[in-house]
Backbone:
């Protein structure tokens, strides 16, 4: 073999090696874009370099405002970390109810929705919405006053009963199917519903168990869970149709965070222990 051929072969091997190294490096680095411009091109973000999220901040401990008015919660912290892994900042379109999130996505006002969304809360791709990988299973609780005369679930399937629920939520659908005779009161926040139960305005309220456990262990110790439905739904993030790349990259980052133990630590912080 001539010296020139050997040099050419050696150079080719170097090129191949560099290409392989770059591919491996990309795999190791996960989904983090190499630049803001690359992220904007890949994701079609509403605002360059920023992940714009529609959220109602009305579902403690997933997302809520603390006494100082600052946003907090499990999802809030999780998305800050996810965005950082992708090299993005986070901006919230606050006070966007779950039922209004699909419109915010379709109108290109937000890149994703994150608001303790149960898979069944939102539409499907036919409504211009695609769903991310479910990341948490949740139950559903019927909450009543500790001194309530009615204690059995079937006691609440009565026209004289009024049950508070988040408007057009999975909890509302559950009440309509399981307790069809009960009257439904649509409220904006879990606090509004539980205050109503405390004051006797509502006979009961129905919320996801993570919200019920968090609130009943503190502010609303005068209330209790009368009925619990295990694995009633799954939380997910949602995206506008055409955002599969963003969805898939966030799903991958979530899986990475899970394998690293970050999700477990966040669950312990907000729920007191790692969830089953």
Residues:
């Amino acid at each position: 073999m001539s010296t020139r051929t050997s040099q050419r072969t050696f150079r080719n091997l170097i090129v191949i090696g560099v290409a392989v190294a770059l591919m491996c490096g990309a795999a190791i680095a996960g989904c983090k874009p190499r630049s803001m411009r690359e992220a904007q091109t890949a994701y079609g973000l509403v605002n360059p370099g920023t992940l714009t999220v529609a959220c109602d901040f009305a579902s403690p401990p997933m997302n809520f405002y603390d006494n100082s008015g600052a946003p907090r919660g499990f999802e809030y912290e999780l998305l800050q970390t996810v965005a950082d892994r992708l090299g993005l900042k986070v901006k919230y379109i606050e006070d966007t109810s779950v039922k209004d999130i699909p419109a915010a996505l379709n109108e290109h006002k937000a890149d994703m929705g994150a608001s303790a969304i149960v898979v069944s809360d939102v539409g499907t791709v036919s409504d211009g919405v695609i769903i991310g990988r479910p990341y948490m299973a949740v139950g559903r609780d019927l909450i009543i006053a500790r001194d309530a005369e009615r204690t059995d679930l079937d006691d609440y399937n009565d026209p004289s009963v009024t049950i508070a629920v988040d408007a057009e939520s999975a909890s509302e659908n559950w009440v309509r199917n399981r307790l069809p005779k009960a009257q439904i009161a649509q409220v904006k926040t879990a606090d509004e519903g539980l205050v109503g139960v405390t004051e006797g305005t509502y006979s009961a309220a129905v919320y996801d168990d993570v919200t019920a456990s968090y609130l009943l262990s503190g502010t609303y110790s005068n209330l209790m869970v009368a009925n619990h439905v295990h694995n009633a739904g799954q939380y997910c993030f949602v995206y506008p149709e055409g955002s599969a790349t963003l969805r898939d990259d966030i799903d991958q980052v979530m899986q990475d965070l899970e394998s690293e133990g970050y999700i477990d630590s966040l669950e312990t912080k907000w729920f007191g222990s790692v969830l089953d």
The radius of gyration is 23 Å. The longest strand covers residues 223-240. Residues 138-233 form a domain with the D-Maltodextrin-Binding Protein; domain 2 fold (CATH 3.40.190.10). The CA atoms of residues 59 and 211 lie 6 Å apart.
